[in-house]
Design brief:
Blueprint: H1 13-22, E1 42-44, E2 50-52
């Protein structure tokens, strides 16, 4: 049907490091970030500074 899906997994830091190092699954695994106490979305820039990441996504147009 043309739709693609990916799963997201949350793990404790030590377990996440083990999964990334050992790659126990026969699928690609990508580290996309970590949970922090401060609310919002954040991005670490090339200089190591944390900056707000504005929410965004695909805006579907409604057809009538």
């Amino acid at each position: 049907d043309g739709e693609d899906f990916e799963l997201i997994l949350a793990a404790a830091p030590a377990e996440a490091a083990r999964i990334l190092a050992e790659r126990p699954l026969d699928v690609p695994v990508t580290d996309v970030g970590e949970f922090v106490a401060e609310a919002g979305l954040w991005q670490i820039d090339a200089g190591g500074r944390r900056r707000p990441l504005p929410p965004r996504g695909w805006q579907h147009e409604l057809s009538e």
